[in-house]
Amino acid sequence: MSFEKVALKHGAGGRAMRALIEDVFLGLASPVDGIGLSALDDGAALRVGDRWLVVTTDSHVVHPIFFPGGDIGRLAISGTVNDLAMMGATEPLALTCAVILEEGFPRADLERVRDSMLAASREANAPIVTGDTKVMGKGELDGMVVNTTGVAFADRVVTDAGLRPGDRILVTGSIGDHGMAVMMRRHQLGLEGDVRSDVAPLNGLVREVLRAGREDVVAMKDPTRGGLASVLHEMAGKARVGILLSEPAVPVNPEVRAACEVLGIDPLVVANEGKAVIGVRPGAADRVLEALRSHPLGRRAAVVGTAISDRPGQVILDTGLGRRLLAEPDGEPLPRIC
Amino acid sequence: MASAAEELKFRDPAKARALTEALGHELDAIGRSPVSVMHVCGSHEQAIARFGLRAAFPRSLDVIMGPGCPVCVTDTPEVDEAVALAAQGARVCTYGDMLRLPGTSKSLADAQADGGKVEVVYSVSQAAELARRRPAEQVVFFASGFETTAVATAAIILAGVPDNFSVLSSHKYVPAAMDVVSEMKETNIEGFIAAGHAATITGWGLFEPFARRTGTPVVVAGFEPLDVLAAVVELVRLIRLKRPEVVNCYPRCVTKEGNRPAQEKLWKVFDVVAGNWRGIARVPRGNLELKPEWDHLNARHRFRIDTAAVGGAERNLLADRCICGSIMSGLAKPDQCELFGKECRPESPVGACMVSSEGACKIWHVYGGHPNLQEVA
């Protein structure tokens, strides 16, 4: 679908955003030795000798800047560390940090964000080595924007296109926590219950996954904007397989499930910032699951689906009561009362 | 919030399997295909589509959504009236689903973009409150929905509203939805699932004359997936036994008499009148209009509504290809429309069924588009 002006949905991680990138930014792609822009993966992987240099960049905007379970600083570090990890690069060499601030931004908040970035970068063992600061006039942006770029070497690159029929699909824990925590704070929904963002660097967890699964780990992606539904569509589309997803097998915290039910939102389309979706060859599923569950960030990991040859590019949802196709998310999920 | 235990109770896969097996036995005993039943409620369609129940139904069963979306059957001239009132300077308040419903040439959203005072409210009391806060304005509540929301409109009117508040009623009457389909020669509906929430107000006894007159069984159903499954099993059993009875499968909410005080309020304020339903027909007892003694609160009497000024635009070529009328009559499925999911999507709806969250097309679109997944291993 063509458009004349950018709309909010073009940044929401679903169908519209993919269309915008394909229509406009793919024009920037040029051939590289490795995985470049045209792969539309979490990052790029460039051949350097017999290894891969993985590069990724991510700009972070979130409202509110501080939310239950995290803040924009932790988000900015985790987002980039996770994008590297999803390509198989779990030892970040370095991160950069560029911030754009709105005139009038409180110094105390800025220091709080800095402390949070420092804590997350230590947690991920990912040093911040350079940065940039700009200030824009009041009202020209909302508080602050943080961009981080990360580089890391990998011996083997894992893309998000490696699924074959029969492969099993795992999630590393409960889904929907981050998006619902932010949404409930943003819209002042006044729902009770302890819903906290899952924002966390995942490179340590992914290191254990790769150690246990090796070559049998064939696809990885973090379900951020657009949630699990969006990631599964992307994996199915790129690998030309169908995916059969078991809804009852998907871990969802009771508070998140209840809030989603009340607001008419499907947890499958809600953003996560500390989870990964991992495709493995069938024989490795148990090994990888065990490795995940022995890590503090993977205790509630579960096998949730299977790649199939039917319906390539589509995701079939088994609800436990019946089956239907899962729609690819198109824009930001909005609570029905807003 | 629903507790986990309650959710299990009405979404238990083992119970669902037992019910679909029972359904299979009933259909085998009938021994012909298809057996077509209809529900007349968007919330039932949501339960069926969201939980993928059609893929679990035996192939010989066709569960069709009828004209069960009051927003969808709100006719073009009714929207024109609301758009004209906004153009004439009134503040028009309505439910969110009504905003993008197309009129002859404009929706209320268009009227809003033109500078008209259009406001989305979550309840009629919010609209009355708005009128109190803005005594210098005329506030019109463009009222939509079946008996469930009509009772709320009636209660607010009976409680007393400010002089600058009036109602443009587009309320619809549930039994009419079943009447209109059973009178269509082309449909072959053998049983109806009636909406549990409306029956909470009217009582299930309301459907007895319909069942007797048409020889068609009616089952009142709730909105959890097991509610719907249990109701379908019961309905098919009544079809097999050729018993045109009314059975209440939602006894935790619905009684035979219904909510008497609510009914009293409803019929103190509203009369059942004939009305055109969008894309379907003129329905003899289809609409709920304010009784003559409430003419002073009826926007159609208070104002000279000039719909000529907002109608008569150029032909909408896309709208000519929309088959919402056939879909709402149960003669076609959303995925049989050539516009479905292509030109017609929730963010750019062509027909009424893609506008409302109770519309069949919107529901099918949200839940994956095509329901029949029985063939996938």
Please describe what this structure looks like:
The complex is a heterodimer of chains A (338) and B (377). A 7-stranded mixed β-sheet of chain A has the order 10-12-9-13-11-14-15. A 6-stranded mixed β-sheet of chain A has the order 1-2-3-8-6-7, with helices on one face. Chain A is of the alpha+beta class. Helices cover 28% and strands 25% of the residues of chain A. Chain A has helices spanning 15-23, 72-86, 107-123, 177-186, 203-213, 227-239, 254-263, 285-293; strands at 34-35, 44-48, 51-60, 66-67, 70-71, 92-102, 128-136, 144-154, 168-171, 217-221, 242-246, 277-280, 302-308, 315-318, 323-325. Chain A is globular and about 55 Å long. In chain A, a hairpin with an 8-residue loop joins strand 1 (34-35) and strand 2 (44-48). Chain A contains 8 helices and 15 strands. By secondary structure, chain B is α/β, with parallel strands linked by helices. Chain B folds into 3 domains: 13-68 and 175-248, HypD, alpha/beta domain 1 (Rossmann fold); 76-173 and 260-310, Rossmann fold, CATH 3.40.50.11740; 318-354, no CATH class. Chain B contains 17 helices and 11 strands. A 6-stranded mixed β-sheet of chain B has the order 4-3-5-6-11-10, sandwiched between helices. Chain B has a 5-stranded parallel β-sheet with strand order 2-1-7-8-9. In chain B, helix 2 (13-30) runs parallel beside helix 12 and helix 8 crosses helix 13. The chains are: A alpha+beta (338), B alpha/beta (377). Chain A binds chain B through residues 9, 191, 193, 242, 244, 248, 254, 258-259, 261-262, 308, 310-311, 316-327, 330-331, 336-337, and chain B through 1-2, 4, 11, 13, 16, 49-56, 122, 225, 229, 345-347, 357, 365-371, 373, 376-377.
